[in-house]
Design goal:
This protein has 121 residues and is of the alpha+beta class. 46% of the residues lie in helices and 18% in strands.
């Protein structure tokens, strides 16, 4: 087989080397994505809060919207964005709700602001 033909061993070897580089690069980016996801989800604090009145819901949403951190409310199998007043009203607010705080750099300040909503067990 001539050396310049599309199926020569040199061409097949070059294609093979390129595919290894591609898969190595792909593997690198997959690992990088997993590390980024782990970093984002590594700092979660869960607290139990009570939002048993409309006024409490309004003030709670105003308080947490001051912060850049991500907040989720968990009630049973439902998880909603805690910064969404409409989302909160879709939950059963007569019972205590779990609040997940993600990657908050200023957790102490957040906890201080959330003191009126905390449920003590």
């Amino acid at each position: 087989m001539p050396k310049n033909s599309p199926l020569s061993l040199d061409n097949i070897f070059q294609i093979f080397l390129k595919s290894i580089d591609f898969f190595s690069l792909k593997r690198y980016y997959i690992i990088k994505i997993y590390i980024d996801i782990f970093r984002r989800s590594a700092y979660i604090k869960t607290i139990k809060i009570s939002l048993n009145s409309i006024d409490k819901v309004k003030t709670f949403v105003n308080v947490i919207n001051r912060f850049d951190a991500e907040f989720d409310l968990v009630s049973g199998r439902y998880v909603i964005d805690a910064k969404s007043i409409m989302g909160i009203f879709s939950l059963d607010i007569s019972k205590p709700i779990d609040l997940n705080i993600h990657n908050a750099d200023n957790l102490d300040e957040i906890m201080e602001q959330l003191q009126p909503y905390l449920v003590t067990e």
